[in-house]
Amino acid sequence: MDKFVVLNPEEELRLIREEILPGFQPPEPRFLLPVLHEIQARLRYLPLEGLRAVSEYLGLSAAAVWGVATFYPQFRFAPPGQNQVRVCLGTTCHIKGGEAILESWERELKIKTDETTPDRLFSLERVACVGCCSLAPIMTVNDSIVGKSSPISVKGEILKAKTVRGPKTQTNSNDQ
Amino acid sequence: MKKNNNSGSQKAWEQLQKRTNREISGKPVPEIRLGTATCGRASGALETLAAFREEITRSAPAARLLEVGCVGHCYAEPIAVVANPGFPPILYGPVTPGVARRLVRDFLGEGDPCLEFALGAVEENEKIPSVFELPRFRMEKKIILEHAGWIDPARGEEYLLRGGYRGLFRALGMDPRDVIREVKAAGLRGLGGAGFPAGEKWEICRAFPGKTKYVVGNGDEGDPGAFMDRALLESDPFSVLEGMTIAGYAVGSHRGFLYVRAEYPLALERARTAMESLRGLGLLGKNILNSGFDFEVELARGAGAFICGESTALAAALEGKRGMPRVRPPELAEKGLWGKPTLLNNLKTLAAAARILDQGSPWFRSLGTSRSKGTAVFSLAGKIHNTGLIEVPLGTTLREVVDTAGGGVPKKKALKAVQIGGPSGGCLPAGLADTPVDFDSLKEAGSIMGSGGMVILDEDDCMVRTARFFLDFIQKESCGKCAPCRIGTYQMLKILDGLTRGKGSDAEMKILEELALEVQQGSLCGLGKTAPNPVLSTLRYFREEYEAHYREGRCPARSCRDLIAFYIIPEKCSRACEVCVGACPVEAIAAGAKGIKVIDQEKCVKCGSCYQDCPIEFQAVIKVSPPKTGGK
């Protein structure tokens, strides 16, 4: 079981410089998105200093890298909680009450969407559509997809994450 | 077997066939194929998989267990096909872990096919009723999804065994121009939404000079409410890759990009595995089938931007830039990726092209209507019994899709509208249910075919709220490059926001309509141009519903939360039942005098859980709009 690893900024930067970037040869601007994906897959977020290293490596301006990274909703710039909750708000989830489920999470975790709980156990995001509409409303907790969810089932998911699933979230596999 | 005038590939092809045939010959063993695509997983397929594995080890060690994709019947997930020698293969669903254990023990072990869990046999036979007697199976015509859910998406051999790659083999023996002629003759139109003739696109791309050209498979299925491309990639990535290779050969390209949205991790994983398998079989990479033709495909992952479904924005994303569209022309076919001619097709179009090359254009032309040939894949979701994926000949009516394939609207509710084409499409009212589903009929009715997302709305769904939902989506996804889309959709959203809260005026309605037309005409790309469609189509068919919101503060569908309230009718409430108390996420319901439940209106968040869960024999919870009157 992998432990939830938090790296310090120097280690993060070393990982990006020495393990991630050299995998993209030759350095070309077109690798920007794959590089960002890879960093986020390993670190679960994009550290600012890391982006600077990316811009130097790919020969792009820091502004260009920042512009691209902030354009795409997939990327985040702060580490998420140990359990990542995503609530689907696609068309079908919308008509089947996805909003009420998102609100239920906000209420139970006492945070707003796109925030992380102070104990770093949970972070909450909305997602445009996970393409699982036939089982709406959908929420995902880490890697598991929960179909036909309801506002009350949120409480059970929190309990499950705290007990069964626990803080065993892997550092690198749940952010694909 | 078809002859190929390229002798090198003829030999390679024969060897490949021999090799795959050798793999399956031998003593037949019991085989279980479990659908573990995303929708299956959401229904617990992984738990079922574990149960199968455990029970097979214990009581039927000879049996094979395979993970496959999705046959399209999401309502019955998890789905498994069990092939036990001596019986026809049987389709089961939903297969819970308990059912899985019984199937291994009782069916594989003792020969009892447990028909109580079966949907039917998947082959016509004399023993067991077959699924083809079900209306949905009868009306479907699977071309693009022909192999989805039946083959192991990790092994190219399985695709070959079912006739895969015959299309490419045939194409490699033809002049590339004849390949294009074949696709043109078939009348295949782009299945990504706009319906541009595919063969023509290929021809245009081929005509532009240049040694370097690219082929892009557009799997950036961003429409909320659509999941056809996901299911196709998770179930049968080979058809897409075969189509891409054929397209590459036809237009003179040696390099393809398969662009898949990041929200589909399993689709990405399965596409990657499939590509490795094809490389091992000599069907991808250098010198494909010993024909001298090279074609390599790179998998690219999106990053959550809806706009990247637009071809020029997708090209920008592949180049590592922000996914912003540019003015067209020049089209991608002329100046695409890195300025080179680029052919971009939807994944379903590519898969259909592979079939056309295999079976010939006359066969394909025999399906569909006079102007829309072939089939269309739809994802059915929303207020419908049998959700899932369906593939029907173009020209099938909406009613057939909803009633026959979908099994109608649940809970005896009335069909209100069908939303087609996502944020770019429109809501067609129940009155237009006899509209044939094809490119031109849908456009005439104020919607578009789109990529194929179909969401069924019933009487409880508010059209104003639905329009607001799409505008909210578009507003968030607008890339911001052009003002009509960036600012126009924002202003439209503000008006719609007000309407769902009961605020608005005739003057604002007029502004809403004017803005809709201006955004439609003034936007740079397809996203903006089609963004007003949900508003325009609902205004066209459901204007009185808009008016009720701001004139009476009433939501006729009782859906807009600011305009409704929930009450429990004391006479109907069963005192012994506590379902609503348990369903309420905010503890707003408590038993009052004599055990009758009462909703605390201050605490109520209007999520509707009590309304949904109150047992049908009581139906004690009512929804009223406007909230102040009528409810007591």
Structural class of chain B: alpha/beta
Distance between the termini of chain A: 18 Å
- Radius of gyration of chain B equals 26 Å
Query: Radius of gyration of chain A, Cα only, in angstroms?
Result: 17 Å
Helix content of chain A: 40-55%
- With strands numbered from the N-terminus, the spatial order across the biggest sheet of chain A is 2-1-3-4
SS elements, strand count of chain A: 4
The number of helical elements of chain A comes to: 7
Strand content of chain B: 5-15%
Q: What's the CATH H-level superfamily name of the largest domain in chain B?
A: NADH-ubiquinone oxidoreductase 51kDa subunit
Largest sheet of chain B: 5 strands, mixed
* Number of alpha- plus pi-helical segments of chain B: 24
- Poorly predicted ranges of chain B: none
User: What is the level-2 CATH architecture name of the largest domain in chain B?
Assistant: 3-Layer(aba) Sandwich
Of all protein chain pairs, which has the greatest interface, and how many residues does each chain bring to it? Answer: A-B, 52 and 68 residues
Q: Tell me the β content of chain A.
A: 5-15%
CATH fold naming of the largest domain in chain B? Rossmann fold
Strand order of the largest sheet of chain B: 2-1-3-4-5
Give a quick set of tags describing it.
heterodimer; A: 176 residues; alpha+beta; 7 helices; disordered C terminus; B: alpha/beta; Glutaredoxin; 5 domains; 5-stranded mixed sheet; 40% helix
Q: What do you see in this structure?
A:
With 176 residues, chain A is an alpha+beta fold. Chain A has seven helices and four strands. Chain A has a four-stranded mixed sheet with strand order 2-1-3-4, with helices on one face. In chain A, β3 and β4 (144-146) form a beta hairpin. Chain A is elongated, with a radius of gyration of 17 Å. Chain B is of the alpha/beta class and 632 residues long. Chain B folds into five domains: 27-133, 3-Layer(aba) Sandwich (Glutaredoxin), CATH 3.40.30.10; 156-365, 3-Layer(aba) Sandwich (Rossmann fold); 375-461, Ubiquitin-like (UB roll) (Roll); 464-551, de novo design (two linked rop proteins); 564-624, Alpha-Beta Plaits, CATH 3.30.70.20. In chain B, 40% of the residues lie in helices and 14% in strands. Chain B has 24 helices and 18 strands. Chain B has a five-stranded mixed sheet, covered by helices on one side. In chain B, 57% of the residues are buried. The chains are: A alpha+beta (176), B alpha/beta (632).
